[in-house]
Amino acid sequence: MASQFGISKAEILEMSSVLQSRVVTDAVAQVEGMLQQMDSSTLNIAVTGESGAGKSAFINAFRGVADDGPEAADTGVTETTQEPVAYSHPSARNVTLWDLPGIKTSSFQPRTYLKDVDLLKYDFFIIVTSDRFQECHSALAKSIIQAHKKFYFIRNKVDRDLEANAKRRKKGGLLDSEVLSLLRTDCEKNLRTCQVDEPRVFLISCFHPQCYDFAALQMTLLEEVEGHKRHALLLSLPNLSTPCVFHYLCTVHEVQIIYVHYWALGHISAVHANNQCK
Fold it and tell me: What is the CA radius of gyration of the chain?
């Protein structure tokens, strides 16, 4: 005879027996621990670059916050950051982006910069530029490499470059794809001179995050961030819908489903015990 859950008495007895075994108890504890670690993992992203390159605009775009919103990082053409400033992600409080002081300033000292901004605090660095590759970028890249940290190079404001090219195109300018290719190649070539074997270069516009390489940057971070920090990052990308993100979501959901499954077994066992007492 089936119970109110549509499960036979024999099946209830079998599941109750399994539930009481040490293996299942240990498995449930392991899954619970895994979920707790996921929820408590933090991710700290350092965002640096020269004054006016769009560091703050990048932080806002990454967090899905309008530049004039209450939680927005201050933006402007002049350097507005003198000390590292933390900005939590509105939908994933475990993810924090840090707006670091600009590197193309009179106070920038390549040898002490990373120590001054508390290097060990950050999981990786985002270097933002909106112009040609310069010596300050090279010095910063070398310092990060020597510290055994990862960085990703962002060439911002590419929409501005394409607009300028469109005006020249009337006189025989390049195709947009050619302009983007030249920008990427120049950044990669200069980074290789800094002993970066596989430069991570992304062409973006913070005003148009749906265009260019913004999604590619997010996907690369998902692929390269390790352990439970990946879960924290995933929660900060709710609007990104790609097969790869779906894969990561499935991984997280599988753990949750396992937990729910064991919870259901426990619930069924409790129902069975109550029925036995009647």
Answer: 25
Q: Left (φ > 0), alpha (ψ -120 to 50) or beta: where does 48 sit?
A: beta
Inter-residue contact 28 to 259 (CB < 8 Å):
yes
Give the residue, 263 or 84, on which the prediction is more confident: 84
pLDDT of residue 257: 46
pTM score of the predicted model: 0.75
Q: What are the structural domain ranges in the chain?
A: 9-38+246-277, 44-226
Contacts of 72 (CB under 8 A, 6+ apart): 56, 60, 65, 66
What is 233-267 written as a DSSP string? HHHT-TT---HHHHHHHHHHHHHHHHHHHHHHHHH
Q: Which of 258, 147, 160, 159 is nearest to 212 (CA)?
A: 159
What CATH number was assigned to the domain covering residues 44-226? 3.40.50.300
**pLDDT higher than threshold 50 for residue 47:** yes
Helix and strand totals (H; E) in the chain = 10, 6
Give the mean model confidence (pLDDT) for residues 208-225: 91
What are the strands of the beta sheet with 201-203, ordered from one edge? 85-89, 92-99, 43-49, 124-129, 150-155, 201-203
- Region 233-261: mean pLDDT is 56
Amino acid at 72: A
